[in-house]
Amino acid sequence: MRSPKSYTKEDVVEINCHGGIQATRKVLDLVIENGARLAEPGEFTKRAFLNGRLDLSQAEAVLDTIRAKTEGSLKVALKQLEGGLSKDVNKLIDKLADITADIEVSIDFPDEDIKLKDKVKLTGEAVSVLNGIKELIDSYGKGMVMREGVLAIICGKPNVGKSSLMNLLLKRDRVIVSPIPGTTRDAVEEMIDIDGIPIRLVDTAGIGAPKDPLSKKSANKTRGYMDMADIALLVLDGSHKIDTKDREIFRLVKGKKKIVIINKSDLGNKVSGPELDKLSVGSETLEISVKKNINITFLEKKISGLIWGGSFNQGESPTVANARHKESLDKAYRCVLSVVGALKIGSYPELVAVDLKEAIFDLGLITGRSVSEDILNRIFAKFCIGK
After folding, report:
1. Distance CA 218, CA 228 (A)
2. pLDDT for 111-140, tens place per residue?
């Protein structure tokens, strides 16, 4: 493949091997004997960046595309790979560069009576950039959800239908189900996709009075997952009244985002009433029947809504899903905030220019306009060989 039309913008030779792994290894050994070497992690994408095929945020999106856990996370990664984030960041950099040019005129030609652009207008332009940076920062929470997923635990006392619910949400029999209380002795974790959101769903052992050392270990592990969980699916047996064990579990997940699930609704509802209202205040409540498959689709919608706290157009607008980008945006935001304050009080233009240049530098770190070799090495070290 002749440059510059290859991925790296360099001349590339690709060898396709017939047969199994042994034939491939023999060909690889022969190529290395004749002067080739194994690629370093991420070397092809790094070359693509260095040769101008991709900017740095697009290069990072290659890895996010490979690691995407759901269709939703893939859409977010592809939007960045297409240059959606880069376009927004470059617009902000260009606006800051224009403001800097106006500021530096007054610094470079103080005796030429060249008037600074109307201060109010200049401040308005800086505020516009500030709002643009803030919008990208605000997308980070949802971006990280799409990239890393959400930890959701199914919790409750023994024999309320937690494992059956897990199997139903997974749409396969992953967990052993039995009418015998305490069948699940260890936490079972699986990845599921609900409305494009990657969710690490954990079925935990029922919390009750430990009868043996193993039950005690299971209960401690369940409590550990409760501490780490982003959301809790608290399952109650609707055919029995709320008891001390249920109250204890409510206490353990207090303050967490949660959905109170009243299972076995086909057997009647004995838990609804003032006590449930008090225990579940601020939480979603839903009656379901795992056995009859009642309201499971509605439960999935409630889980999605609980995570987003509203709507989220996956991949339709640039979304920040990288901690490095978030750090650079935070630094740039503080600098531009300082610029706005300085312009309002009429501070020295030299001080304003310093903050403007720092903000441009920080935003440039996202796209690779201003980046060190050390940062590049750390970014591409996360890639697998051959990418």
Report:
1. 16
2. 544 455 577 888 999 999 999 999 999 999
Distance in angstroms (rounded) separating the CA atoms of residues 40 and 53: 19
Strands 231-237 and 150-155 come out as parallel
Q: What are the structure tokens assigned to 131, written together?
A: 């709002």
Distances in Å between the Cα of 163 and the Cα atoms of 17, 183, 256 are 46, 9, 21
* pLDDT tens, residue by residue, 346-367: 888 889 999 999 999 999 999 9
Q: What is the pLDDT of residues 291-343, one digit of tens each?
A: 888 899 999 999 988 887 655 555 567 889 899 999 999 999 999 999 999 98
Which phi and psi angles does 286 have, rounded to 5°?
-150, 135
d(Cα 257, Cα 152) in Å, to the nearest integer? Answer: 10
Alpha helices for the chain (secondary structure H):
21-33, 43-50, 56-67, 71-81, 84-108, 119-138, 140-148, 162-170, 213-228, 244-252, 274-279, 296-308, 323-345, 349-367, 373-380
- CA 65 – CA 82 distance, rounded (Å): 11
Q: Are 382 and 47 in contact (CB under 8 A)?
A: no
Angle at 168 between CA 166 and CA 170, to 5 degrees: 70
Place of tokens 């980046």: 371
Q: Which of 95, 140, 55 is nearest to 366 (CA)?
A: 55
Q: Tell me which residue has tokens 């650079």.
A: 328
Degrees (nearest 5) of the Cα angle 262, 268, 273?
60
- For residue 82, CA distances in Å to 58, 274, 318, 328 come to 7, 53, 10, 21
